[in-house]
Design brief:
about 180 residues; alpha+beta; CRO Repressor; about 50% helix
């Protein structure tokens, strides 16, 4: 239970390699993969963890080996969190940037397809924001996979301004400036 069948450092190397490869794979799969989980997404995550579990331990089933792997994964995650907190470039690389999906009552369907945002997902986001398409100011696919919607500000009628004109300020003539 406590005896390692592999050198301790191999658990760290294996965990770091799996962490790095999975980070790249998840990042490449898009924002919607990590956003809102459907039952299918949950199944993929569970199978993914099962698929990489053997590569983490390398056949070692000891408690110490498992704890070394877990500690390595947590340390890598904390280090990456610190790095993205202090480096905007690292944050953009790891987390990505929000994507504009619509503006001024118009949806950008090509971007929606590219980022795997379905019409139903967009309709749901508009409903949740109590926003009709004609009221849409902008919609973004956020870095966490959620869709944020901002409604247009309602234009209020100019009350009390009807018939008012804009006046320019002119230099008033004073007796001293009239040539006296």
């Amino acid at each position: 239970m406590l005896d390692l069948t592999l050198p301790w450092w191999e658990f760290i190397v294996r965990a770091a390699a799996v962490y790095g490869v999975l980070l790249v794979m998840v990042r490449m799969s898009g924002k919607r993969t990590i956003g809102q989980f459907t039952p299918f997404d949950l199944l993929v995550v569970m199978l993914l963890s099962e698929a990489v579990s053997n590569s983490l331990g390398g056949g070692d089933e000891s408690l110490v080996g498992g704890l070394i792997g877990a500690a390595t994964l947590l340390a890598l995650n904390a280090a990456l969190g610190r790095l993205t907190a202090i480096s905007p470039a690292a944050e953009r690389l790891v987390d990505g940037e929000p994507v504009l999906l619509g503006r001024d009552g118009r949806l950008f369907r090509d971007r929606m397809r590219r980022h795997r945002v379905g019409e139903g997902d967009m309709a749901r986001a508009l409903r949740e924001a109590d926003c009709g398409l004609d009221e849409l100011n902008c919609a973004f696919l956020e870095i966490d996979g959620s869709i944020s919607v901002r409604k247009r500000e309602r234009e209020l009628p100019d009350q009390g301004r009807a018939g008012m004109t804009r006046h320019r300020r002119t230099k008033q003539k004073t007796p001293s400036s009239e040539g006296g």
